[in-house]
Amino acid sequence: MNKEEKTAEETESGGSGDEKRARGMSIRFKYTLLVTGILAFVILAVYLLVRAGLEPYTISRKRSQIRSQIALIAGSAEQGFPEKSLVELEKSIRGTSVETVVIDNLQDMPYLVYATNITHSQRMNFLKAAFDSGDGLEDLEVYEKTADYLICRGYNTRMGNDEIDCVGYVGDNVFYFMAMPMEGIHDSVALVSRFLLAVGLAAILVGSILMYLVTSSLTRPILRLSEISDRMAKLQFNVRYEGEETDEIGILGANINHLSHSLDVAVGDLQAANRQLEADLKEKEELDARRRQFLSNVSHELKTPIALIQGYAEGLTEGVSEDPESRAFYCEVIADEARKMNLIVKRLLNLTEIESGQLRMEPELFNLAELVRDVAESTRMLAGEKNVELKTDLPENLPVMADPFMMESVIQNYLSNAWHYVSDPGRVEITAGNSAGKITVTVFNTGECIPEEDLPHIWDQFYKVDKARTRSYGGSGIGLSLVKAIMHAHGSACGVQNREDGVAFWFELPQATALLQESDGGGKTVE
Q1: Residue 393: how many CA atoms within 13 Å on its side-chain side?
Q2: Containing domain of residue 318, as a range?
Q3: In the listed set 356, 373, 388, which residue is the last one of a domain according to the structure?
Q4: pTM for the model
Q5: SS3 366
Q6: Checking phi first, is residue 88 left (phi over 0); if not, alpha (psi -120 to 50) or beta?
């Protein structure tokens, strides 16, 4: 078998072994399954309809026949029951299987005019008494009740079967009784249902086989086109569709052939070079962008403290101020600005190391609640002379597995922002909650909300919402960038939310499965 014959055979059967495992249900099988499902649904619906509706329909027809016979009995009674009318009545009753009794009480002498079966006398007398008096009808299923007749359904205890009965009068003298057993109706419904079920199953089987055979000619070219598209996806552009159809499938095949040829010519020459060029350009653009941003931000942040240091140092050198108090002030300014420069450089180094992956996290199990309380007290002095209330709502134990040094930096940055931006008077609230296995810590301060347009950018390096105010307390715009980098390194999230009376910053960590407990000696143990 040559290669083309093998490919054709694989296409006909749905592809090679690996391709058939990867490919889902074939169109041929889907069409067959669809037709089979429709046939099964229709036949099942008809079967259920017959089971549910054939008996009521048959009963309705039988009631119609009973009314017709009542009309024949009434017409015959008006004529005095001549022989001809009785013959017509018998012909009508014979075709309905309705047992009928007609009695004429002329001159108070009961006279049996017509009877097909006299074994129902007990049932007849019971229904006659019930119709005359109106008592006992509650035990019957009454279909129709008029002044002249009653049609009902009940159980004949003597005959031992369920039946439809009719009693009534023509005028004042003629009484009639009709009985139709339900057993024949039940048998008819069961017979029709079984026949329909057998025919339906045969129709489903034959229809499915025929549909599966018929769809072969439809699905063969589609499978071939599918195989060609698979090979084109693997950059094999030397395949062609050989079908001769002139319909939509033929047009699709011609378009695929044209596309395959065009891609074979273009991609073969440019693919490797293009990938390398894209990679080089992307890397160069990223490096240039990072370098420009870094230089711009660093120069912007350092130029002010450098200018202050230079100015005050020159003033000391030239002896601008001779008194000790002024010299001490100059030195204090120089030291303070140098401290700010040192803090900016340290934070930049930490941020760079975290983002580049050079600084490895050293996670350990510790109580996050205790760390938050310690940092809150140590940073309280940042409030200065403001009238600020500190509220904490923390559980005793918040076990987490994280780098405690880095998490301390996160909490310090959040609290530093809170103390400096809190209103006067105001409050700072620290809360923590546990939901779905995650611990969320929130630091809230009363004060002005962050403008909505600034919210997406506050995590960017050197971004400041209020530059003048940030500068007044030495903010560099790096703190929140550092928070974001630390939380990203932990695989966790952080965020900010404006509230009605302030701003809330939050971060979350997975709750550790182990528990932290206080030991008898005052230390901490891990279970």
Answers
A1: 10
A2: 306-356
A3: 356
A4: 0.40
A5: strand
A6: alpha
Write the pLDDT tens digit of every residue in 247-269: 777 788 788 787 877 777 777 77
DSSP symbols for 156-188 = ETTTTEEEEEEEEEETTTEEEEEEEESHHHHHH
- Sequence letter at residue 233: A
- Residue 175: alpha-carbon gap to chain centroid: 70
The dihedrals phi and psi of 443, each to the nearest 5 degrees, come to: -115, 115
Phi, psi of 509 (to 5 degrees): -140, 150
465 and 389 in a single domain? The answer is yes
Task: Give the span between the Cα atoms of 226 and 217, in whole angstroms.
Answer: 15
450: domain CATH number is: 3.30.565.10
Q: Distance between CA atoms of 412 and 426, rounded to whole angstroms?
A: 19
d(C-alpha 267, C-alpha 466), whole Å: 53
**In 295-340, which ranges are E strands?**
none
DSSP string for 19-73: HHHHS-S-HHHHHHHHHHHHHHHHHHHHHHHHHHHHHHHHHHHHHHHHHHHHHHH
**One-letter amino acid for residue 485 of the chain:** A
DSSP code at position 449:
P
Q: Are residues 372 and 487 in the same domain?
A: yes
**CA–CA distance, 124 with 101 (Å, rounded to integer):** 9
Read off the pLDDT of residues 422-466 as tens digits, 9 standing for 90 and up.
998 899 999 998 888 899 999 999 999 988 888 888 887 667 665
Same domain for 327 and 400, yes or no, is: no
Task: Report the C-alpha gap between 223 and 406 in whole angstroms.
Answer: 58
